[in-house]
């Protein structure tokens, strides 16, 4: 059998070795690339998670970026808390992800232990304002 690597392979060397060992099972491939540990009882444990992370990184897909793209802010967690003043702030990251713009309106529906935010369509808003204008004109005509 082939000799296992002493230090885990990374980058192009890892990709080349994985391609070379494509006929072996995935655990054996990970072991041959150096992604294993030996326990106190001399049992070999294969670290598949580290192996997959290294493979993704070698292919240019980092799983845990060290810093955000622009170096500012935090990563979205999809969790918020109520502030001291009673407000809940969603944050710009979420509004950008949803494609929301300044002035977009929402209808708030309260449920038992949940809140629904329903975006008001701009078409419906325009329709509603047209109806309001027509009603105002009718009221003016009735008064005359």
From TrEMBL:
<dbReference type="GO" id="GO:0001217">
    <property type="term" value="F:DNA-binding transcription repressor activity"/>
</dbReference>
<feature type="domain" description="SpoVT-AbrB">
    <location>
        <begin position="77"/>
        <end position="122"/>
    </location>
</feature>
<dbReference type="Pfam" id="PF14250">
    <property type="entry name" value="AbrB-like"/>
</dbReference>
<keyword id="KW-0238">DNA-binding</keyword>
<dbReference type="GO" id="GO:0032993">
    <property type="term" value="C:protein-DNA complex"/>
</dbReference>
<dbReference type="InterPro" id="IPR027360">
    <property type="entry name" value="AbrB-like"/>
</dbReference>
<feature type="compositionally biased region" description="Acidic residues">
    <location>
        <begin position="129"/>
        <end position="144"/>
    </location>
</feature>
<protein>
    <submittedName>
        <fullName>AbrB family transcriptional regulator</fullName>
    </submittedName>
</protein>
<dbReference type="GO" id="GO:0000976">
    <property type="term" value="F:transcription cis-regulatory region binding"/>
</dbReference>
<feature type="region of interest" description="Disordered">
    <location>
        <begin position="122"/>
        <end position="144"/>
    </location>
</feature>
<dbReference type="InterPro" id="IPR037914">
    <property type="entry name" value="SpoVT-AbrB_sf"/>
</dbReference>
<dbReference type="InterPro" id="IPR007159">
    <property type="entry name" value="SpoVT-AbrB_dom"/>
</dbReference>
